[in-house]
Structures are given as structure tokens and as C-alpha cells.
Amino acid sequence: MSNTFDKNELLLGAYPSNHLSSSAHKIIHHKCSSMIIRLVKMTFNQEDVEPFLAELDKRKERIRNFDGCSFLEIFRDRKDPRIVFSHSYWESEDALNNYRYSDFFQETWTFTKAKFAAKPEAWTVDCLHRLP
């Protein structure tokens, strides 16, 4: 494996740290300090989890490719499969807000919120440290 990586591959954690050059580590550190991270916890009605995941599968690429978004992950709780988390990286608060106020988000959120069993929880945080 060569030590030449696309910066997006580095952000996605696609390579173990022993394969990264010192310049690659600097890119990771630099990108961490300049982005905000959005974490959202969603708890769905049991019967609505699979329909939500099916719709998300159709929309995830568009979410990830929205202007200002550089990373998207979706997690599912191991103990309670009704709980789903999204984890995304945004260039700025403005980029996140442009997404949140877009017609695409409004359409997605209208579909999604009808399926909640509990009020969603969301956090916008800064990355302080990332250790490869």
C-alpha cells in the first residue's frame, strides 16, 4: 500500500495509522480543527425503523454530497434497534444551516419526524482531538 491518499479517504478513516505519512497526519489534524460535527439521535417506532432506513438509503448520497458536508455516517444501537444516530462533518455552521433550511432537508425531515417514538436529540460540536 502506498502512502498517497486522497484527503477524503483520510477523513473517512479508510487507512490504518501505520500507513499514513507524517504529512497525512497533519491533514487529519488540520481538517479536524476546521470543521463542526453534527450528532443526531433518533428513536423510531418499531414498525417505522425499516421504512426509515429504506428511505435513508435513497437519500444518503445526496445528504453526503450536499454543499459543505464532507462526511456522513449512520449508526444503529446494538441493544435497541429503534435508535439510529447520524454523524456528519460540516465545513461551517452556515453550511449546516444551509442544509437544514433546504427544501431537500424539509422534505426528508417531514418524512422522518412522523416516525419518531421520542423527541430527537441533536448536538453541534467542535472536534478537539482526532487520533488516527
CATH topology of the largest domain: Alpha-Beta Plaits
Spatial strand order of the main sheet: 2-3-1-4
Task: Show unreliable segments.
Answer: 1-30
Large-scale geometry: globular
Hey, roughly how much beta strand do the residues contain? 15-25%
β-strand number: 4
| First and last CA, distance | 17 Å
* CATH 2nd-level architecture of the largest domain: 2-Layer Sandwich
Q: Please, what is the oligomeric state? A: single chain
CATH class category of the largest domain: Alpha Beta
**Number of helices in the DSSP assignment:** 5
Q: State the helicity in percent bands.
A: 40-55%
How many separate domains? 2
List the helices and strands in order.
HHEHEEHHE
Radius of gyration: 16 Å
Computed structural class: alpha+beta
The average pLDDT score comes to 83
Q: Which sheet architecture does the biggest sheet show?
A: 4 strands, antiparallel
Description of the structure:
The longest helix is centred in the middle third of the chain and has 16 residues. The protein folds into 2 domains: 33 residues, no CATH class; 92 residues, 2-Layer Sandwich (Alpha-Beta Plaits). Strands 2-3-1-4 form a 4-stranded antiparallel β-sheet. By secondary structure, the protein is of the alpha+beta class. A hairpin with a 6-residue loop joins β2 and β3. Helix content is 40%, strand content 23%.
